[in-house]
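Appendix B. Raw example, untouched.
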Amino acid sequence: MTCMMLSSSCAREAQESDLNAPPTKMNHRRFRALLKKLRRKKIRQKVAQERDHLLEVEVEDVALSPGQEEQEQKERERQHALWLEREVEAQREFELRRRLEKDRAALLAERSNIVKATESLEQVLAQLPEASSLRATPREESWHNPPAPRAYAPTEPCPFYIKTGACRFGDWCSRSHPRPVVSRTLLLRGLYSHLSLEQLHGDDSLETDERELQAHFEAFFWDVLQELRRAGTVCQVRVCRNLEPHLRGNVYVQYSSEEEAQQALTMLNGRWYAGRPVSCEFSPVDRWKTAVCGLFFRRACPKGRGCNFLHVFRNPTDECWHESRSPPPQRQHPHSPRAEKRRRSRSPHRSHKRSRTSRSRSRSKKRKKWHCRKSRSRSRSRSKKLPAHSQRSKHH
């Protein structure tokens, strides 16, 4: 049917194009060309109609959503801001990486310089004959501390530090504080603490009861003494109740030997008590008579709170309180000839026998004295009774 319509239209066009020409039969080739031309025209018309329809739909969509453009603009801005943040973070990471690489390179260069310097120093030392001889043979001379500078002038020792082991001026004292290398006495600074000792400028109403303070001290004393006896025999314990900062709460402990004091120093240093670290050191105090204030127990100390001698608590039941009258034993080298002589001369059997004989002699002397006194008292009583008896006999 379409072919018939096309043929009729072609014939009509041919008639219109050549009205004056006589009617002739159309060539088949020309007919096919016209047919293709009409097909292309129809296709173009259809495509144009679809395009116009799509344009109309788009125009209608834009008219229906006027805020879509703004939303798209906002989305583009948000994506741009995110991109800027990522770019800044990337730049920061790059800068940090570059700095780390630079520091690493500087460290490697420094290490290489140190290695080169040590190698060069070893080469120089190897060339010296004295250094090689020193390395080959062991050093027989004992080491010693470096000599003091020429401008150094020795000062007198501080008397308060020698007596009490503490000075109110501390490191700013004009005199020297010679610290003992080893001693039988240990100083535990500020180990004991109580509210009454910390009230330097308190009112009388804030003072703590003496009985309460003594009870607190006794609990502290037995707690600390049990731990101190783990290192050895404790001879003396003194706990300061001074209010001066350099003496407040100090605890002095004296052991029977320096070895036990050294063991206690190693055991106590680095530990904690009542939430505070323990500070333990050797103290030059050896005589308590010169360290303890004698007027404090009489309540007649004229210095009061400002006294630089030890105001100590009285130990409960006088435990570790009385000072031994015998002097402390002197240290001797275990391989000295004197120690060897004493070790050979003394034997357990002889010492035991000697102690038994001394005890028996002392007992015999005491018995003789007692018998002498008893005989004298009897003779006196008899002499008093004889005259009365004689008078009675005469009267009878």
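End of appendix B.
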